[in-house]
Design goal:
Blueprint: H1 8-20, E1 25-32, E2 35-41, H2 61-71, E3 77-81, H3 83-94, E4 103-107, H4 112-118, H5 141-147, H6 151-162, H7 170-174, H8 202-211, H9 220-224, H10 231-246, H11 266-273
Parallel strand pairs: 1-3, 3-4
Antiparallel strand pairs: 1-2
């Protein structure tokens, strides 16, 4: 497990301060029998406060915020957020799933060790309250290795990995950007029920396309996969295509929506993508 370098007492002090300043509750992780689980701290003398965790464990807290904001209209929440958590919340706000006017982010910078292990481009939020910012260590080796293969070899690579999929939906369930009540992965017309591994490549192709312009590169999908499928390489390449074609990185510009949600006319799309869409 990756380790953090923030003292738990620092976080306790921040939680108390935010509650005193008017937050109705603070969403964070607490230690429960050796595991980090989400908890909502509402008072400064809460027993949960003595168990707050700043370990390397992560959890998609944004998914919980969606439900909390709906369940408690008018309430304000503070939340502990790493760089990937902030990116997720920015995108969720664009999709009208969270109201950032009612959310205060308490930024937690990933340690240098965490940054190297993760390999994301920004291992810290825009405003850091806890920890010290570490230099990003973007990792592209796996993508470069894949791109060195021929199309046929690449197809065999993914076919081999996807053949281990047990269709547990762990990648979807842990993803901070998956919130649809009606999931295409459970549509029997798209994915045949009861077939394990799912038919190649429909299941993972549907999810990859759904993540285009939405994936914030948190890596939780790959961490959660019991079959060890290198999902992050697939989604990272999708991110690169979005940046190459549209100049868009999810979660980095609060004022700009995912271009795939507002592409425009067919002629405008062809102009953006070039001759690849010629009929």
């Amino acid at each position: 497990m990756r380790t953090a370098v923030v003292d738990a007492n620092e976080l306790k002090a921040v939680i108390r301060k935010k509650l005193e300043e008017g937050a109705d509750a603070f969403l964070c992780l607490v230690d429960e029998e050796g595991s980090a689980v989400p908890a909502l701290v509402t008072v400064a003398d809460s027993p949960d406060l003595e168990r707050v965790s700043v370990s390397g464990a992560r959890y998609p807290l944004g998914k919980l915020l969606i439900e909390l904001l709906r369940e408690y209209p008018g309430r304000r929440f503070a939340v502990l957020a790493r760089g990937c958590d902030e990116r997720a919340l920015v995108e969720l706000a664009k999709l009208e799933q969270v109201d950032l006017e009612r959310v205060e982010l308490v930024g937690l910078a990933c340690s240098a060790e965490e940054a190297r292990a993760c390999g994301c481009r920004k291992p810290y939020p825009s405003r850091v309250h806890l920890g010290e910012t570490a230099e990003p260590a973007p990792e592209r080796e796996a993508i470069e290795e894949l791109e060195s293969l021929s199309d046929r070899e690449r197809l065999r690579f993914w076919e081999e990995h996807f053949s281990r999929c047990i269709k547990c939906y762990g990648c979807r369930n842990v993803c901070p950007m998956c919130f649809c009540e009606d999931c295409a992965l459970e549509n029997p017309q798209l994915v045949e029920p009861g077939v394990v591994p799912p038919e190649f490549p429909s299941f993972h192709l549907i999810r990859a396309l759904d993540m285009a312009g939405r994936c914030v590169d948190c890596g939780l999908c790959e961490e959660a996969c019991p079959a060890g499928i290198p999902l992050r390489s697939l989604y990272r390449r999708m991110q690169e295509v979005m940046e190459e074609r549209f100049g868009y990185r999810p979660g980095e510009d609060p004022g700009r929506r995912n271009p795939l949600s507002e592409l425009g006319t067919e002629e405008e799309i062809k102009k953006i993508l070039g001759s690849g869409l010629e009929s």
